[in-house]
């Protein structure tokens, strides 16, 4: 019964250890946010900077598994290149050894010199300070720091619980006999790999080993294979996270596995060859917490030193193991397969870093904008010369826009349901509205193309004047749409006044051209059927301009951090503050399009 109670308490300590690591990791990512993305981007300068970055981030979040999953997500989201991810992974492997070095402080318990550094004291200090920050401070950032400190405290508390309970195992001869079996290198490696794959934390399994070592029942012979196996088992997390990801993201997981697997094989060959020929004097001695921490550190330092020059070889091996599919070459207009790959940036692995996830959502919305603009331009090309293949490409792009709409909306909603800052919440709301507007722009561009197809099927044609008028309307709307996209992608708000001036001109020409078309109907220069198509195409183009205005309002709110305003409020503010500039821009654009009509030019 005593042994059962001891085992339960030890499992409870393990749960505290893992939960503490989770709290620490979660709150560090909340505090770091966009900085993590910037740090990883800067790490691409050279391999040594990448290794140092991997070490620092892993020490911060106390988990190499979390870092490798993040790297898989960033490669999948095309934030990091495959080659630049390799040194970060190597650095993460070194960084995770610091956890074991921290945990060895438990062996200092009772030392008068290091009493204040012992996990028992540190756990109490961190938990007390964290509780004070959590309970008595209202600022979210300070409360996140409080949770982070409590996580560290729970981590140490869990460790000490395991250490204290493990001492009772020394009274079990059978346990010593079982553990001695792990001196078989193959069995030891398998056990270490399997346990780490289940727990999904090499730091936690190293902690278990360190706790058991306090009972004095495991030796170097039985522990070394387990540690090697743990380094292989930790790759299971990154492999799982790469399922369903891009080819390069899968290759990151493969490189992580190859690195640890090759390193373990090299160590196995070197250690057991030397042991067989010469023999280590300490081989059958009991190992302590410091010995475990030191071997774990030596393994990762030596593996990195040996394999760093082979980073290019590891990359090539990963590419051979995860092959690209052959892509057939199509004409420049058939770009939907390439465009759809942008959805890789909507990777769930990065939703736990909301600022990064939000910026990736904006990347997809920008791509939706580009595709909508391309379909709008191609629809006018159909009026000049109808082409079935081009219409099919427009249909494919419209399908891609719809897929992006659903994917980015779901992605942003997931982010909105997380614990995010007020500003991040406002940004998510703005982006959700913008992606919906661009989807509608795509719909109206496609509608215009289908109207032109219908006219072609019925062998209807516009008069020369009707075509000229439609192309003027198109030119104004294209000007509005391109400025709207530029404003979104570059955060340039100087174009808002120009967009509003263009909308006023569009309204004037819309009414003017409708009246002129009615006159043509009266004189039978145009038929009723062509007249209906003319009005419907103009209406579709006008709707595109309306949705552009909605996007501009959200862009102002998103970029300038303004309060959310309605269209009516926005226009009132614009005219009140920039009335003279608006008149000036209006006159400039009016002259431009009057000249276009006088010269009888056609713009596509």
Task: Describe the model.
The protein is mainly α. The protein has two domains: 320 residues, no CATH class; 261 residues, Methane Monooxygenase Hydroxylase, Chain G, domain 1 (Up-down Bundle). It is 78% helix and 0% strand. It has 24 helices and no strands. The radius of gyration is 32 Å and the shape is elongated. It starts with a helix and ends in a 6-residue tail after the last helix.
Helix and strand pattern: HHHHHHHHHHHHHHHHHHHHHHHH
Structural class by SSE content: mainly alpha
Residue stretches low in confidence (pLDDT < 50, at least 5 long) are 327-332
- Report the count of strand segments: 0
Using only CA atoms, what is the Rg? 32 Å
Outline the biggest β-sheet: none
What is the arithmetic mean of pLDDT? 79
Strand content: under 5%
Helix content: over 70%
The shape, in one word, is elongated
Number of domains: 2
Distance between the termini: 85 Å
The helix tally amounts to 24
Structure in a nutshell:
The protein is mainly α and 604 residues long.
Describe the SSE topology.
Layout: H1 2-32, H2 34-42, H3 47-61, H4 64-76, H5 82-95, H6 97-103, H7 119-136, H8 140-166, H9 173-180, H10 185-199, H11 202-213, H12 220-233, H13 235-241, H14 247-277, H15 289-307, H16 311-321, H17 336-340, H18 354-384, H19 388-416, H20 422-457, H21 464-490, H22 496-522, H23 528-560, H24 567-598
């Amino acid at each position: 019964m005593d042994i059962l109670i001891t085992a339960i308490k030890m499992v409870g300590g393990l749960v505290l250890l893992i939960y503490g690591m989770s709290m620490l990791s979660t709150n560090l990512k909340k505090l770091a946010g966009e900085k993590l993305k910037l740090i990883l981007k800067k790490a691409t300068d050279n391999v040594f900077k990448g290794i140092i970055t991997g070490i620092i981030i892993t020490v911060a979040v106390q988990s190499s598994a979390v870092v490798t999953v993040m790297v898989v997500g960033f490669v999948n989201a095309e934030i990091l290149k495959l080659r630049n991810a390799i040194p970060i992974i190597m650095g993460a492997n070194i960084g995770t050894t610091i956890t074991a070095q921290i945990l060895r402080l438990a062996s200092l318990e009772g030392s008068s010199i290091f009493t204040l550094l012992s996990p028992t004291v540190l756990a109490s200090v961190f938990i007390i300070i964290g509780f004070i920050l959590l309970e008595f401070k209202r600022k979210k950032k300070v409360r996140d720091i409080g949770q982070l400190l409590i996580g560290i405290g729970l981590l140490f508390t869990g460790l000490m619980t395991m250490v204290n309970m493990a001492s009772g195992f020394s009274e079990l001869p059978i346990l010593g006999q079982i553990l001695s079996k792990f001196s078989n290198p193959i069995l030891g490696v398998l056990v270490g790999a399997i346990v780490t794959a289940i727990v999904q934390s090499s730091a936690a399994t190293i902690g278990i080993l360190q706790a058991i070592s306090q009972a004095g029942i495991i030796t170097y012979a039985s522990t070394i294979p387990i540690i090697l196996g743990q380094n292989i088992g930790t790759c299971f997390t990154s492999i799982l996270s790469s399922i369903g990801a891009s080819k390069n993201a899968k290759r990151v997981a493969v490189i992580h596995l190859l690195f640890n697997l090759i390193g373990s094989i090299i160590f196995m060959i070197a250690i057991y060859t030397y042991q067989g020929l010469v023999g280590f004097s300490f081989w059958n001695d009991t190992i302590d917490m410091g010995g475990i921490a030191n071997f774990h550190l030596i393994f990762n330092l030596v593996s990195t030193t040996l394999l760093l020059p082979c980073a290019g070889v590891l990359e090539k091996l990963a590419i051979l193991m995860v092959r690209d599919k052959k892509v057939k070459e199509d004409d420049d207009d058939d770009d939907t397969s390439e465009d759809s790959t942008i959805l890789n940036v909507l990777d769930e692995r990065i939703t736990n870093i909301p600022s990064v996830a939000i910026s990736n959502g904006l990347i997809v919305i920008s791509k939706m904008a580009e595709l909508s603009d391309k379909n709008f331009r191609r629809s006018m090309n159909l009026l000049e010369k109808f082409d079935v293949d081009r219409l099919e490409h427009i249909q494919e792009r419209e399908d891609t826009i719809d897929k992006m709409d659903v994917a980015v909306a779901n992605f942003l909603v997931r982010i909105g349901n997380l614990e995010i800052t007020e500003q991040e919440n406002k940004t998510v709301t703005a982006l959700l509205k913008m992606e919906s507007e661009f989807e509608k722009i795509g719909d109206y561009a496609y509608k215009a193309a289908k109207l032109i197809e219908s006219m072609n099927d019925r062998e209807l044609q516009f008069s020369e004047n009707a075509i000229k008028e439609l192309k003027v309307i198109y030119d104004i709307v294209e000007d509005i749409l391109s400025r709207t996209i530029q404003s979104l992608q570059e955060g340039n708000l100087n174009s808002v006044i120009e967009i509003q001036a263009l909308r006023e001109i569009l309204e004037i020409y819309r009414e003017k051209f409708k009246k002129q078309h009615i006159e043509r109907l009266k004189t039978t220069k145009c038929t009723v059927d062509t007249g209906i198509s003319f009005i419907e195409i103009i209406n579709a183009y006008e709707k595109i301009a309306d949705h552009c205005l909605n996007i501009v309002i959200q862009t102002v709110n998103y970029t300038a951090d303004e309060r959310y305003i309605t269209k009516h409020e926005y226009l009132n503010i614009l005219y009140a503050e920039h009335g003279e500039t608006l008149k000036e821009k209006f006159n400039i654009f009016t002259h431009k399009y009057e000249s276009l009509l006088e010269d009888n030019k056609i713009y596509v």
